[in-house]
Specification:
Blueprint lengths: L19 E2 L2 E2 L7 H5 L2 E2 L7 E2 L14 E2 L2 E2 L11 H12 L8 E7 L2 E6 L6 H14 L4
Antiparallel strand pairs: 1-2, 3-4, 5-6, 7-8
Length: about 140
Amino acid sequence: MGYLKATILLSDGKSLCPYIEDFKCTIYENRPTVCKAYPLSTNIDNVVYYDINCPGISESGTDLVKNGKVSPSFDSYIFDDYQTRYINTHRKLENFNNFDDFELVTTINNIKFYKYIGKETNPYITMHMESLLHLKKYNI
């Protein structure tokens, strides 16, 4: 396994998000932060990237990021010092690097996703277990 990376799965990697119905978000007011920031996404290098396939981005482009600053309409705490928060999360997850405490749940695009089955509980594990509820919509 090498190391753990916390991931919240909202889809099976092939289908639309299970909360999209008639091309509209059914949980819009309560959607996860990552959805609120879309089409922007953070990365370990502290650079904010955007999904060029987002239908909201016109051919001429949109000022989502200008002069290294995220547009106020898209700004979110997730863009603030993401690298430090990522590293701190990784350090917390190092305590869970015992392969016996994990069970394979699914493989999406050749990436294996595991479920924690150990006895430890903390906010990270709670978020992990709650994120697994999304997979039930796909019978995974």
